[in-house]
From TrEMBL:
The name this protein goes by in its record: Aminotransferase class V domain-containing protein
Region (Disordered): 118-141
InterPro entries in alphabetical order: Aminotrans_V_dom, PyrdxlP-dep_Trfase, PyrdxlP-dep_Trfase_major, PyrdxlP-dep_Trfase_small
Residue span(s) of domain Aminotransferase class V: 169-370
Annotated coiled-coil segments of the chain: none
Length: 617
């Protein structure tokens, strides 16, 4: 008997010649079989009430492979992890707090650092002091640094500017990875996601299109900054609501808001929630565009290669935002990319602020070599290098008014000062070619493999977490974990939001769980779910579930308007391309330790005995 595929794309393609009703029936059957396989991946109908009695990693991994026979086809991801991200195994660190796209691999970073020569200092003399030694790249600055550009968004889009070789190559590589054509979109590098949203809010003509509509089920700092900026410009702000308990979009209300026959504005839409993993339909972009809205597509929460899906080629948004970090599990610094559709550029205003646009500055290898030529040629070479140094210094000084790395300017000044006094040494600069092995790995794995692997892992984790139950004398087990949003679901995204509860049914503070997880070498995220809509049948749950947002500044700001923000604080887990089953088993084993009623107190006193900072409970 052939094992079920559990691959939506594969199932659809294999039955293209059948009528629509038959195809729908086949897909529904496939989804049901998937849910049944999930249940069988851990002992069926079993609950776990003691963290010391959990099945072993080897046993559960064998069960996973038996339930999902096609999981073995994703072993290429494990091979890449072993070869290119071996630091994860050596450090035993579980990274479940990364969103965005990884540019480089750890192996590539280490190779670059090792190949970077450390040059000997030049002997100083009374007439020519030695220049400061140039250090090799460190973990803080592999591959490239960033410097801020003093230019508005519209000016950058219309006229561009002189690009470095690194920027040209990076732009070309990212556009290829994102499946975006340079003829359709222009791209700008920004410092982070907040900068991208703020630049867009500064340039968007809210005076003629006075509405801003967002679709986020959680508190998003970048979006909140955009909202504040839009309000200062007189925009009317609205947000989509999410129906309890599955936290799907309240379709009736959102459709009504989009269809209002008034002057429209910006519709900010992510394809899925990076906190709950709930996925939304591409059709919302279509509905918004049909009603005259400009669409901002936030692709930051998408998985690798998700941009290859058919939807984007049909519903081309006016703006596209995505984030990139350097190395998974090692260096989360990076940048954000803001894509603007070519016909939309002319509709933007010239922004007042220029904060946020950056250029990529390659990490350079500077060496000082002795010039054995005649004194006249040495003098000419020295003058030439001096002029180049002056030009480079002025350029970086001009674009770095807001840069928070003044040590770069100091170093260049010292080199310039040294160049004025020395006529025997020359400054040569070498740049290495750009290779984005992180993006290459995503391309190698492909859309089907990465999405299938994430589907297997995230649903296994949800199934495992819901099997943890507090023991009770009356044989009534209280769940240790509550999942927010969709539970086991074929089409959910690679993220899940949950909370941990004690044996009395009281929620344990998510930040406390996060800190304890960090001490067990597991990185988690905390988030605040909001814009939740409760129907009348869930009034009782509404009263016991909602809490006010704890950020004092945000709360005080809302108090002035007579309105508080209510929602649910949660723990969030995000599965990446390099996440494996062992990572999730370690997380499950850690969460299971909360079944011990004294676990938190034990941790508190253990760290106090070690003279560490304790966590107040």
């Amino acid at each position: 008997m052939q094992s079920p595929c559990f691959n939506c794309i594969c199932c659809q393609n294999s039955h293209e010649d059948q009528n629509p009703s038959s195809k729908i029936s086949i897909i529904i059957t496939c989804h049901r079989e998937f849910i049944d396989a999930i249940a069988s991946s851990i002992h069926p109908n079993s609950q776990f009430t003691n963290h010391e009695c959990l099945p072993s990693y080897e046993e559960l991994f064998a069960n996973l492979q038996e339930a999902y026979p096609h999981y073995s086809q994703t072993k290429l991801a494990d091979e890449i992890r072993a070869n290119e991200y071996h630091h994860l195994t050596l450090s035993k660190h579980v990274c479940l707090d990364y969103t965005g796209n990884g540019l480089f691999s750890y192996y590539q970073q280490q190779k670059m650092i090792k190949s970077h020569p450390i040059h000997d200092s030049i002997a100083s003399s009374s007439s020519a002091p030695a220049p400061p030694p140039h250090p090799p790249p460190t973990h803080d600055e592999p591959f490239f640094n960033i410097s801020y550009k003093s230019v508005s968004l519209t000016t950058q889009l219309l006229y561009g500017g002189q690009e470095s070789d690194t920027e040209r190559k990076m732009t070309k590589r990212i556009m290829k990875y994102m499946n975006v054509s340079k003829h359709d979109y222009s791209m700008v590098f920004t410092a982070n996601q907040s900068s991208a949203f703020n630049l867009l809010a500064d340039s968007y003509p809210f005076e003629s299109n006075p509405n801003l509509l967002t679709v986020y089920d959680h508190e998003n700092e970048a979006v909140e900054g955009m909202i504040d900026n839009a309000r200062r410009k007189g925009a009317k702000v609205a947000a989509a609501e999410f129906s309890w308990p599955n936290l799907r979009i309240n379709s009736r209300k959102l459709r009504k808001t989009l269809s209002v026959k008034k002057k429209q504005g910006l519709f900010v839409f992510p394809l899925q929630s990076k906190v709950t993993g709930t996925r939304y339909s591409y059709q919302w972009m279509n509905i918004a565009q049909e009603n005259g809205w400009h669409v901002v597509f936030d692709a930051s929460a998408l998985g690798p290669k998700d941009m290859e899906t058919l939807g984007l080629s049909i519903f081309q948004p006016d703006f596209l935002i995505c984030t990139f970090y350097k190395v998974f599990g090692e260096n989360p610094s990076g940048f954000c990319c803001l894509f603007v559709k070519t016909p939309t550029i002319s509709q933007l205003n010239k922004s007042i602020t220029s904060l946020g646009i950056i250029r990529l500055v390659p990490v350079e290898t500077k060496s000082f070599e002795h010039d054995s030529s005649s004194s006249s040629s040495s003098s000419t070479s020295s003058v030439h290098n001096q002029e180049n140094s002056v030009s480079e210094f002025q350029e970086i000084e001009q674009v770095s008014d807001h840069d928070q790395q003044p040590k770069k300017i100091t170093t260049l000044f010292e080199i310039l000062k040294w160049g004025n006094k020395s006529n025997e040494k020359t400054l040569s600069t070498k740049t290495t070619s750009l290779e984005c092995r992180g993006l290459d790995h995503a391309d190698k794995l492909g859309l089907i493999l990465t999405s299938s692997r994430a589907r297997y892992l995230i649903n296994w984790l949800i199934n495992a977490l819901t099997r943890l139950q507090h023991p009770h004398t009356e044989d009534i087990h209280i769940p240790l974990v509550k999942i927010y949003g969709s539970n086991i679901h074929f089409n959910r995204g690679p993220a899940v939001a949950f909370n941990v509860f004690d044996w009395k049914g009281q929620k344990i503070d998510p930040t406390l769980v996060q800190k304890l997880a960090d001490r067990h070498n597991i990185s988690l995220s905390c988030a605040f779910l909001k814009h939740i809509w409760f129907s009348k049948m869930y009034d009782d749950e509404k009263n016991t579930t909602l809490e006010s947002f704890d950020d004092d500044n945000y709360k005080n700001k809302k108090k002035k308007k007579g309105k508080l923000s209510f929602g649910v604080s949660v723990i969030s887990v995000s599965i990446g391309m390099m996440t494996n089953f062992e990572d999730l088993y370690k997380l499950w084993s850690f969460i299971a330790r909360f079944l011990d009623a004294d676990f938190v107190e034990k941790e508190k006193w253990r760290y106090k005995a070690l003279n560490q900072t304790t966590i107040e409970v």
